[in-house]
Amino acid sequence: MRFNRPLLRLPIRFCAETLARQVSSLPGSAWVAHPNGFPGNDAVRLITPEGMPTDALGGGMGPTEYLTSCPYIVEIMSELGGTWGRSRLMGLAAGAEVPAHVDSHYYWRTHLRIHIPVITNPGVEFTCGGETVHMAAGDCWVFDSFQRHEVHNRGDAHRVHLVLDTVGGRKLWDMMEQAHSDAPPEPRLFEPGEGAGQALLFERVNVPTIMSPWELRCHIAFIAERARPHPRLDEVMRRLEKLVHQWGALWAAYADPSEGVRAFQQLLAEAGTDLSQLGGNDITLTNDLTFYHVLGRLVFEVAIARPEPSASQGTVRQPAGPSRLASEWPPKARSPAASPTAR
Fold first, then answer.
1. Residue 41 near residue 169, CB atoms below 8 Å
2. Using CA atoms, how far apart are residues 330 and 300, in angstroms rounded to an integer?
3. Helix count (H) and strand count (E) of the chain?
4. Of 3, 47, 62, 189, which residue is the least packed, with the fewest Cβ within 10 Å?
5. Cross-strand partners of 84
6. Is the separation of the CB atoms in 150 and 127 below 8 Å?
């Protein structure tokens, strides 16, 4: 769904007291450092690959022991009705921040992030796309992560948000549509025990083995729509259109596209070399990231996945990444303030 503004408060809110009580009862050992090492940022893992103690993003998702210890959070997720990916409680110490950045990774292109403040204070501010809000405890927010965003805790107490990642669901899309309206309804309170208790749905497929030509085209169109005018843009788009056509022809040649992995790798390598020579490194998008950077994150790094051991062995299947390509990608240029990895 497109955002008509950078931050949306959904028309539902939750009992902050119940949330705070259940979260405060978790043991101190449940809290782990932020995977990117941001000072003052910590988290409790609620949904992970196979429910294991990992911050990985890919693979079959499952609840951890800490989610099952917080029954109201389970009720909330059931009421929101998404199919759930990696989700956490995320803490931010007094005086700490999440620095300004844009989420350009494939994971963020395919997921929506929900924020529900559990413990907060008036000094906590969330800024996205130039708009700043204080999210009140119990409120439910989504935001456009492809715009520059940052969080600051200027208060004197630790802040905790329930942060849920999802590819969406019918009920959630309906709430977002209501929030987008010119006169959004006042949020209704969802009390503990009020829900129907439907079982949660967890992701089982979230990284393509071989990206389909339709998904490839979708990502390229998404980037092109946000590109600023540039004298090389038409040439770059023509080369990418050729890649999509070649990819589709190759896709149609195999009953199982993974049988053609070497041929798909060759197409990416040839396209990467040609795009490097076209000199489109300084084509920028409306969020100030470069076209080539985002193209690398959404297409070149993930179009072909490599199998890895299961999460119970410490890792899960991840995108192939630029090391699998014959040419460097992105070619030399790098965008400032883009998220280096999905967090």
1. no
2. 9
3. 9, 16
4. 189
5. 166, 202
6. yes
- Predicted confidence at residue 232, as pLDDT, reads 97
The model's pTM is 0.89
Length of the chain: 343
Q: Which two tokens stand for residue 104?
A: 């350009």
Nearest to 199 by CA among 68, 310, 312: 68
| Lookup result for tokens 């790798």 | 265
- Can you tell me whether residue 95 is helix, strand or coil? coil
CA 221 to CA 298: how far, in whole Å?
Answer: 11
Q: Mark residue 50 as left, alpha or beta (left: phi above 0; alpha: psi -120 to 50; beta: remaining).
A: left
User: Quick check: 144 and 1 in contact, CB under 8 A?
Assistant: no
Residue type, 125: E
Residue type, 54: T
Query: In sequence order, what are the residues at sequence separation of 6 or more whose Cβ sits closer than 8 angstroms to the Cβ of residue 255?
Result: none
With residue 118 as reference, give the H or E element that holds it.
strand 112-119
Highest mean pLDDT among 137-151, 187-201, 302-316: 137-151
Indicate the SS3 state at residue 304: strand
Please report, as a single letter, which amino acid is at residue 288. Answer: D
Distance CA 266, CA 316 (A): 25
